[in-house]
Each structure stands twice: as C-alpha cells, then as structure tokens.
C-alpha cells in the first residue's frame, strides 16, 4: 500500500528564535550560548559584554529576543534597556534580585525578569519562547517585586465590573460581620519583607546607587571553583558545566565536592543560596 504524500511537506518549519546574549561574565555568556545552541528552535546570533555592545548587536542582527544582564561595566543593562526594547523584546537574566531593580527594569520595558538560581535550563528555554511570543515571564523574586509595587500603590485602577468590592456591612450585630480589616499597603521593601521574606527583601540592603555584591572572599574558592559555582547558581547541570568549561563530568563532580565542603553545604540549592547571599544567616562569605 502506497503511503499518501504529506500535504504539509512543502511548508518550511518555523524559523528558529534569534537571540542576543548580553553578560559581562564570559563564563556565563559561554554557558548560555552552549545551552541555547543545543535547541533546534533557538539560535544565538551574537554575544555582548555590556549594554553598548548589546545595542550594536541588536541593531545589526535584529534578534527576536535579547537576554540582558543588569550589572555590566560601561553601559549597564538598565541604562541600555529602553533603547533595546525599541528593537526586540528583552528579558533580564541576572543575579540582581533587589525589588527596586526589578521594578525599574519593568518600568523601562523589560518583558521578563529571571534571577539566576531560580530556574532550570528547560524553564529558561521556555521563558525565551514565551518572551519571543509576547508573553511575560518572571521568576519568584521578580513576581515578589511586582506584588510589592502593587501594594505600595493602593489606588484602584478603576471601578470593578458588576459592583465587585462595593458591599459594606451595615449591621454587624445581626449579620456577624465586623468592620473590614484591610492590612495597610507596604510603603517600603522592609514592610514587604515582613509579608514575603523570601521574595522582596533586598539581599544587599541597597536603597540607592549601585547595589553591593555579596562578599565571597571567606569561602576561599579557587578561580575554577568560583567559575563552576557561578554556573551551578545559574541552574546548569554537571553535563552543561563540563561542556562549558571543557572538562569531564568527573572533574566537575570533584570540584563540586570541594565547593560543598568549603560552603558547608549538602545540596546545589543550599550552595547557590549561600553563594548568592540569600541563605538565611549566610553571613556573606562566612561559609
């Protein structure tokens, strides 16, 4: 029996998403490029080490999505953001988790905000696809910053349909309803942190200017171990780390064992939290 021809055989598959990766850390750039190039529907068309290079790459290649770090020398990601969004959708991909930075990135047009250590490789790929199709994507820290912004501005956006939110208790003695208790909207990151301690607290205590990076000197990691710890915190598995660093998986495991010992950690998530300075009582590099 002859198999009928496929009526859609002549239709070409969708073109892969074209991505620009902008990060001042060459290890992170290489890791992201290696990760994304392994996907059939995504191709990295350019890399950039700062906001200026990202803008030039975006103008040249007209990508579908730009992955943009926040803290970069020269022109930082926040400064470049309003210029990049005129060319392509931008998703922030960064270690910067301060709610003030998240909110400013969104105000300047970012279509998504992903914090290293809060997503897997597959979730990153899904986020890029979402952003490319116009759907926003946020990791928990960014979602917490959005919640903070909403709670800081209690003004209603307009009347709700069907009279929602207008009911009032008129006789609490007969209907069992007391006066409504509405918690005051937080007016600062500190107030929000009491409600959402893991989502909105600034890991550096920054309230303006350039936020301080975690002090990791106390961990006494070698340059290679610090490089691998960065990749662990970005969500890479051992195979991806080995490919990025051009070493064997066995060597990666040996490095991770030493890293765990120095950070007094028993899991990747615990080590990443200490490395990023977000673990309770992490003490900024005190192990």
Q: Would you kindly provide a written description of the structure presented here, covering whatever features stand out?
A:
Residues 172-177, 180-212 and 283-287 have low confidence and may be disordered. This protein is an alpha/beta fold and 287 residues long. Strands 2-1-3-4-5-6 form a six-stranded parallel beta sheet, with helices on both faces. Among the domains are: 17-147, 3-Layer(aba) Sandwich (Rossmann fold), CATH 3.40.50.2300; 217-276, Winged helix-like DNA-binding domain superfamily/Winged helix DNA-binding domain (Arc Repressor Mutant, subunit A, Orthogonal Bundle). The chain contains 13 helices and six strands. 34% of the residues are buried. It starts with 16 loop residues before the first strand and ends in an 11-residue tail after the last helix.
Query: Biggest β-sheet: count, sense, barrel?
Result: 6 strands, parallel
CATH topology of the domain at 17-147: Rossmann fold
CATH level-two architecture of the domain at 17-147? 3-Layer(aba) Sandwich
In total, the number of strands is 6
Strand content: 5-15%
How does the helix and strand content classify structurally?
Answer: alpha/beta
CATH classification, class level of the domain at 17-147 = Alpha Beta
* Average pLDDT number: 78
Shape: globular
Identify the CATH homologous superfamily of the domain at 17-147. Answer: Response regulator
Looking across the biggest beta sheet, what order are the strands in? 2-1-3-4-5-6
């Amino acid at each position: 029996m002859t198999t009928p021809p496929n009526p859609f055989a002549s239709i070409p598959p969708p073109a892969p998403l074209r991505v620009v990766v902008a990060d001042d850390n060459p290890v992170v750039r290489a890791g992201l490029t290696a990760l994304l190039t392994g996907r059939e529907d995504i191709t990295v068309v350019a890399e950039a080490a700062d906001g200026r290079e990202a803008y030039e790459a975006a103008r040249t290649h007209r990508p579908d999505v730009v992955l943009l770090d926040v803290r970069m020398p020269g022109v930082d990601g926040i400064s470049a953001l309003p210029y990049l969004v005129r060319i392509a959708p931008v998703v922030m991909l960064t270690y910067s988790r301060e709610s003030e930075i998240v909110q400013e990135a969104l105000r300047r047009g970012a279509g998504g905000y992903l914090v290293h250590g809060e997503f897997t490789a597959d979730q990153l790929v899904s986020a890029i696809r979402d952003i490319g199709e116009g759907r926003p994507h946020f990791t928990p820290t960014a979602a917490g910053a959005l919640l903070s912004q909403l709670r800081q501005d209690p003004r209603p956006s307009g009347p709700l349909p069907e009279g929602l939110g207008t009911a009032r208790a008129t006789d609490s003695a007969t209907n069992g309803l007391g006066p409504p208790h509405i918690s005051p909207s937080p007016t600062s990151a500190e107030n929000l942190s009491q409600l959402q301690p893991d989502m909105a607290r600034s890991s550096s205590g920054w309230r303006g200017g350039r936020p301080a990076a975690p002090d990791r000197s106390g961990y006494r990691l070698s340059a290679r171990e610090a490089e691998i710890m960065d990749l662990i915190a970005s969500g890479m598995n051992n195979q991806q780390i080995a490919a990025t660093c051009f070493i064997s998986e066995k060597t990666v495991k040996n490095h991770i064992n030493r890293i765990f010992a120095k950070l007094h950690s028993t899991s990747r998530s615990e080590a990443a939290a200490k490395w990023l300075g977000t673990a309770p009582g992490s003490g900024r590099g005190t192990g």
